[in-house]
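### Sample
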Amino acid sequence: MGYPIAMKNEKRITACTLDCPDTCSLAVSCREDGSLSFTGNPDHPFTRGFICPKTARFCERLTHPDRITQPLVREGANYWPVSWDDAFRLIAKRIDRLRSRPESILHVRGYGYRGVLADASKWFFGKLGASTTCGSPCDSAGMAAFEEDFGALAQNDIHDLGNAARIVNWGRDLSRSSVHLAAIVRNARKGGAKVLSISPGGDGNADFSDHMVRIRPGTDRFLAAALCMGLADAGVADEVADRCANFEEFRGLLAGLDLGELLGACDVAPEDYARLLRWYAADGPTATLVGWGLQRYLNGGENVRFIDAVATLSGNMGISGGGSYYGHSSGRNFIKWAARDVAPAPRALPVHDIGRAIIEADPPIEMIWVDGVNLINQLPAGDVTAEAFGRCGFVVAVEAFFTDTALRADLILPCALMAEREDVVGSSLHDWVNWSAKVLDPPGEARCDWDILAELGSRLAEPIIMPDREEALRTALDSPALHATPEELRAAGFLKASWPQVAFEGMCFAHPDGLCRLPDVLSPEPDAHAKYPCRLLTLVSRRAIHSQIPVDEDPEALEAFVSPANPCVVGLDTSVPVYAATPRGRVAVRVRFDETIHPSAVIVRRGGWMRHGRSLNPIIAPMETDRGGGTAYYSQCVRLEN
Ligand SMILES: Nc1nc2c(c(=O)[nH]1)N[C@H]1C(S)=C(S)[C@@H](COP(=O)(O)OP(=O)(O)OC[C@H]3O[C@@H](n4cnc5c(=O)[nH]c(N)nc54)[C@H](O)[C@@H]3O)O[C@H]1N2
Ligand SMILES: Nc1nc2c(c(=O)[nH]1)N[C@H]1C(S)=C(S)[C@@H](COP(=O)(O)OP(=O)(O)OC[C@H]3O[C@@H](n4cnc5c(=O)[nH]c(N)nc54)[C@H](O)[C@@H]3O)O[C@H]1N2
Ligand SMILES: [Mo]
């Protein structure tokens, strides 16, 4: 593969479009030996010259020999190359046939590629009137919780963490998911801030923290409720209580709780609880970083709501150095061009249980278009989704690799990847908007998603004409927070959107009455399963984004990390094969011991491929979070067995 645009000894600036909060500005260059190199752009005020391992080695993926570089059609178990012309003809014929009942077409889009132009498929299938999906595999339970609490998903500027006296890292793994957040926390610590991390263990937080608190998986709401009790007993300032719409009701809820029971439910030591209470009650602001892991449970939204309540009652909302950080929408700097002139979808199938939803859809789904998501591998019950794809009759996957999802498609269309197409990206962590320039040509016949859809649209009996790309960008960038043009952004490479440094300043929240809401119910934890007593935590890997893992790199067996005190290891023979087993089946693992892990947790790093026996999603049941249509992966009960 050649690099006609990035020439030797020349650096080109582009931006990462992977689904990651840091949204880095990248310098792409070509080494002496002809290989590509991705580094952090030193001139970008947020990226500051460094990037994470997953992006640094993304260039290996661009040039990987397994890349799909021409359209492929399936015949039985084999794929044969077809021309784009034939591929478009096949798809257009199918769409024309289904045009009078477009709800029989399902569009599934993921965030494997992010950006303003990446919304092209959303617009196209919206225009067609196709069915879509609702909910998410990612962060929607926590987002819904924030909206319920404060009326909007907003947080202080991430650099305002430097003004915190204390940072409670409630459930992030600072060593893995966001290298720039980790750097900001490290700097805040150098400046004198103290850091305490709360998690079920097995992470890399010790290097970033002054104190570590271990918690039983999924039970953060009990610890947070206990803290709310302590804060309420010590007395909540009137100016805080008056900003809560339901303070008295919340006090009533707390009055019925027992501290010992709460601490027992979350298995947090009384001295850790006492320290946290002191932290939140002390002078000077305490910032709370709310993790996404703790909302991937049946009561995930409630976990987040109670943590927000701690930040609120302790007087830390709406002030510099305080706040509750979850993220903000990476699209908030843009006008949503893809929603213009598009009617709401006729139906939306729940993504956490997508296989069953497709099988039971009435009227049936007769065509599926998947782009930017490895649906079968990454969502629970992947075996059911695979079956649903098989029954549907016509599946098109726009993909660059033979993922478990692409391998169930009738037609695979090869897409360009980041650095091979242009786009504009915003971040869910910072306020910079980056120009993701095209610095390489896509290999072979691969094309960017926009071009694929534009051509397909023009071939339909009743054509769908994509808007002008430049106009779509122009519309998107002319937002109240940005007011930029594509020309300005291309010339500058990145621009900063303007948002307040402090979210909800003065405790003015985004609900119409300006008040926040405290939780109205504390749900008990579901009983542990008698035969599968642990929780299966499928956590992020440091070196790859989700399933975008070089296939040749996978070690032999999946590693499962557990405490030596885990009840599952009693009687387990680790000299013969060991399996992680759930009521849905079992997957071979190699046991690794880590005494920092809570005894009820089994930790496996996610993203491995199903067809290599390295995805746990086929044995994870489809469960929905309490709000936001999220996916409750970590509520899965599990045991280890021989
Ligand atoms: N067990 C378990 N599973 C989980 C989770 C968990 O906690 N536990 N977490 C979930 C979370 S947080 C998320 S966000 C999801 C992520 O799951 P996915 O969204 O499926 O993420 P990826 O595995 O990165 O797959 C994205 C795909 O998009 C493709 N792609 C990249 N660029 C482009 C492009 O420009 N065009 C097109 N058409 N395709 C492109 C890539 O090749 C890749 O195959 O996984 C979820 N899965
Ligand atoms: N390297 C890398 N970076 C990524 C990604 C990637 O795949 N690889 N994916 C990106 C995406 S799309 C996402 S959504 C994020 C995911 O990033 P995170 O949500 O941060 O990742 P997770 O590993 O799912 O969960 C984070 C931490 O939650 C903790 N945790 C789990 N259960 C509980 C609990 O009950 N209570 C508490 N207090 N803590 C708990 C675990 O210790 C875990 O380390 O990362 C983004 N960044
Ligand atoms: Mo995610």
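The domain at 72-137+331-492 is CATH 3.40.50.740 (Rossmann fold). This sample (Anaerobic selenocysteine-containing dehydrogenase) is used throughout the tutorial notebook.
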